[in-house]
Design goal:
The complex is a heterodimer of chains A (210) and B (581).
Chain A (H helix, E strand, L loop, with lengths): L33 H30 L13 H25 L2 H31 L8 H32 L9 H25 L2
Chain B lengths: L1 H5 L13 H6 L4 H31 L8 H37 L7 H20 L30 H30 L12 H32 L11 E2 L2 E2 L7 H35 L6 H14 L15 H29 L8 H24 L1 H7 L3 H31 L5 H27 L13 H4 L2 H31 L56 H4 L6
Helix pairs in contact in B: 3-4, 3-5, 3-16, 4-5, 4-6, 4-7, 4-8, 4-13, 5-6, 6-7, 7-8, 7-9, 8-10, 8-11, 8-13, 9-10, 10-11, 11-13, 11-14, 13-14, 14-16
The chains are: A mainly alpha (210), B mainly alpha (581).
The structure holds protoporphyrin IX containing FE and copper (II) ion (CU).
The site of protoporphyrin IX containing FE has 23 residues of chain B, from helix 3, helix 4, helix 13 and helix 16.
Chain lengths: 210, 581
């Protein structure tokens, strides 16, 4: 797919510019460009995951008042994870700034930071699970514990998917595929990743604050 | 994903496929994928239809021994699942969506051809566990296509509640992923890849309908995915999301506590109702296009058609409770759901009247495709009107789970959507394969289907009012149903007519593929962009530049124009008349 067909209508002596701009003069992605397609798709995925959790959180709130709720205290590791995911979003914004400045090396370095913090988040979630299990709290122990495992698990699975996407962005980025004008893949990834951060804060609050 | 970013903006215009495998099997070409989807779902239709024949034989002659009590329930559950998820959805969204969207908006392919190919093949993969469940101990799921817990949540609850139910869940999960891939593609493609001049208000209604259906799928399928996940956890991990406390199974107290089976119904129908619009919106769009063409008139009230589809799309998320009137919901809530449900009648009626106004004083050409389009309006109305009965909580409490419901949804969704598929196949077959279909066989197919469908599903209203409930394998235990035995025989004979009609259709497809007369590029003298391509369209769809669009999609019989149609790609100078759109 990466080997695009050359437009045969162009005279062979005038090859198309290698990377024509995907943005109009106002810096907005132009219609018809794969750049903008990626961000639209990212928003659509965000909408879809939002609906998934809309369903799950509705189910949660219906069950919340039950006599057998069996509330579980938040394992401290979850706070560590929260800090990690917030840090990863900051790092991601720094990466995008660097890209806009043309600082390719710092762009890649910051993205590596995102990856490290994302992995740290997942590690924190897993250690929270282990802490729960050590305390004898399992998936089927109580309604609250069921939802706790469910929300963290489903969110974590989406975050793991995000890490795979980040791997693609990173390998492209190291080859210099992105710059200030060609950043559709980075923008799309950023939409997805920031969304997962916001989603985690929401779930964390839903699980323990109300 | 990121590959496309790095490359040329034309990165979606992939290279011409060389080998047989990359051309016809793992093809990236939206047209091939569309045809693959259609053929696969027609094959599934054969299985779903054969099950329906077995069900009907059993119901007319309960002692014929075609099905037993257990296998009857498995047969209806698989019939429903196959027809909805593996026939209508993939044929309409996957088949016509893929084939038509790029051609109609002037794109060389989908935004993400690779994801598109993946979407088709995940659909194929999802079929495997479903069909495999026929051959496992206990057979396929038998709790109905809705798979309500606790039947579906407890392994021992019914013969199919074991491995059969597991395979069903697996299959549905894969199917939902496949349709997610598809929806993402359609949405992005329609937003991003329209050719110059193709504004939203110039889109053919087929494209609008597929766009709205994709949004509905994107937003409703995840909710049932969540619901299915909870079901899976209840089955394998001992959680109690759905399974209530104090349930006895085979004399044994079940080890779950405090779950609520109604939660599943909410999550299921939050998808289930939009799903019926996912399958009926594309036929609505396609029929709008064919009616305008074969009546040689602009579609009546184009903008009203779009707005009513949007309204249907929004409302479809607010009515799921009408499937749950008998669950003891608060009467106020029931009233709210009833009001919302009846509100859907308004945009639906707008559409129906607009179709009829389109026909009014048209120069109608009764091609087979047109016959199916008119039949669509008829079936949709005959089924839709009883939706007003069922939407009223007070009436539904009496009619719920009777054959009245079976008659209603088969006409409004099953039969109407089938007619949408047939309309589309007869209309676009020439574009797909370069040959015309046999009109004579088409007519036989049409009349067998129309008479058969009415003969099958209209009497079901009477059965339902008479009290015959659904999901029973033999009425012999019920004296009051036995008195309606004759009606059941009539229904079964009619059902066989539909099936025979389907076989005629299948034969027609094969005959036309090999013997059909060659088709011109624009055999129906139509206005939309797909007819500006060579027939069948080459890889990349247009040779040379994609024609720009200069007008709306329905310029038929424009006063002062020399032809009775002005295609979208004709410039104002060439057309000789100035039109407003
Ligand atoms: C060939 C024509 C068809 C015939 C004769 C037919 C017949 C039937 C019958 C008799 C039942 C009721 C079984 C029972 O409740 O005991 C049924 C159920 C059902 N049918 Fe069809 N059907 C046909 C086509 C379709 C189509 C095109 C659809 C797609 C919407 C469809 C979807 C369903 C569904 C969802 C159920 C409910 C299954 C359940 O109760 O779980 N059918 N069909
Ligand atoms: Cu409904």
């Amino acid at each position: 797919m990466s080997k695009a067909v050359r437009d045969t209508r162009r005279a062979p002596s005038a090859p198309p510019p290698r990377r024509p701009s995907a943005r109009d003069d106002n810096g907005r992605p132009q219609r018809g460009e794969p750049q903008a397609s990626l961000t639209i798709t990212a928003w659509a995925i965000v909408g879809s995951i939002t609906m998934l959790f809309f369903g799950l959180v509705s189910a949660y709130s219906g069950r919340r008042g039950g006599m057998d709720w069996g509330a579980v205290a938040a394992p401290p590791a979850l706070w560590v994870g929260t800090a990690a995911i917030l840090g990863s979003s900051v790092s991601l914004e720094a990466a995008r700034r660097a890209l806009a400045r043309g600082a390719q090396r710092s762009f890649v370095a910051q993205l590596l930071g995102v990856a490290a913090l994302g992995i740290a988040f997942l590690a924190a979630q897993i250690s929270a699970w282990r802490a729960l299990a050590d305390a004898g709290v399992f998936l089927a122990s109580s309604p609250h514990s069921s939802y706790l495992y469910l929300f963290t698990g489903v969110h974590g699975a989406h975050l793991a998917g995000g890490l795979i996407a980040l791997g693609v962005v990173l390998s492209q980025g190291r080859q210099g595929a992105y710059d200030a004008r060609h950043r559709g893949g980075v923008d799309a990834f950023a939409i997805y990743w920031h969304f997962l951060g916001v989603l985690w804060l929401t779930l964390f609050a839903v699980l323990f604050a109300f | 994903m990121a590959t496309a970013t790095a490359a040329h903006p034309d990165a979606h215009a992939h290279e011409d496929p060389q080998s047989f495998v990359s051309k016809y099997i793992f093809s990236y070409d939206h047209k091939v994928i569309g045809v693959q989807y259609l053929i696969t779902s027609l094959f599934m239709m054969l299985i779903g239809g054969a099950l329906a024949m077995a069900i009907r034989t059993q119901l007319a002659w309960p002692n014929s021994g075609v099905l037993k009590a257990d296998s009857y329930l498995a047969a209806i559950s698989m019939h429903g699942t196959i027809m909805i998820f593996f026939v209508l959805t993939p044929a309409l969204i996957g088949g016509f969506g893929n084939f038509l969207i790029p051609l109609k908006i002037g794109a060389r392919d989908m935004a993400f051809p690779f994801i598109n190919m993946l979407s088709y093949w995940t659909y194929v993969v999802s079929i495997i566990p479903l069909l495999a469940s026929f051959f496992v101990p206990g057979g396929p799921l038998s709790g109905g296509w809705t798979a309500y817990p606790p039947l579906s949540a407890l392994r021992g609850a019914a013969p199919g509640s074991g491995l059969g139910q597991d395979l069903w869940l697996l299959s549905i999960a894969i199917f939902l992923i496949s349709s997610l891939f598809g929806s993402l593609n359609y949405l992005t493609t329609i937003l991003q890849m329209r050719v110059r001049g193709m504004t939203f208000w110039r889109l053919p209604l087929t494209v609008w309908s597929l766009f709205i259906a994709s949004v509905l799928a994107l937003l409703s399928f995840p909710v049932v995915t969540g619901g299915a996940l909870l079901l899976l956890l209840d089955r394998i991990a001992g959680t109690s999301f759905y399974v209530p406390a104090g349930l006895f199974l085979g004399g044994q107290l079940v080890d779950h506590k405090g779950g609520n089976p109604l939660l599943y119904q909410h999550l299921f129908w939050f998808m289930g109702h939009p799903e019926v619009y996912i399958v009926i919106l594309p036929p609505m769009g396609m029929v709008s296009d064919t009616l305008a063409n074969f009546a040689r008139k602009p579609i009546f009230g184009y903008k009203a058609m779009v707005v009513s589809m949007l309204a249907i799309g929004v409302l479809s998320f607010l009515v799921w409770g009408h499937h749950m009137y008998v669950t003891g919901m608060h009467p106020m809530l029931g009233t709210a759901f009833a009001a919302m449900t009846l509100a859907i009648a308004i945009p639906s009626a707008v559409k129906t009247f607009n179709w009829m106004a389109t026909l009014w004083r048209g120069k109608i050409y009764f091609s087979t495709s047109m016959l199916f389009s008119i039949g669509f309006i008829s079936l949709f109305t005959a089924g839709g009107l009883t939706g007003i009965f069922l939407g009223n909580a007070a009436l539904d409490i009496a009619l719920h789970n009777t054959y009245f419901v079976i008659g209603h949804f088969h006409l409004v969704m099953g039969a109407a959507a089938l007619f949408g598929i047939f309309t589309g196949v007869y209309y676009w077959f020439p574009k797909m394969f370069g040959r015309m279909m046999h009109e004579g066989m088409g007519r036989v197919h049409f009349w067998l289907s129309l008479i058969g469908l009415y003969g099958t599903f209209f009497p079901m209203y009477i059965l339902g009012i008479g009290g015959m409930h659904r999901r029973i394998f033999s009425f012999e235990a019920f004296g009051y149903i036995t008195r309606m035995h004759d009606i059941n025989i009539v229904i079964t004979i009619s059902a066989f007519m539909i099936f025979i009609g389907g076989l005629v259709f299948a034969y027609n497809l094969i005959w036309s593929l090999t013997h059909g007369p060659n088709s011109a590029d624009n055999p129906w003298r139509a206005t939309t962009l797909e007819w500006s391509t060579p027939t069948p369209p080459p890889h990349g769809n247009w040779v040379g530049e994609v024609p720009a669009v200069h007008r709306g999609a329905y310029e038929y019989s424009v006063p002062g124009a020399k032809d009775d149609y002005i295609p979208q790609w004709v410039t104002p100078q060439k057309a000789g008349v100035v039109t407003e759109h």
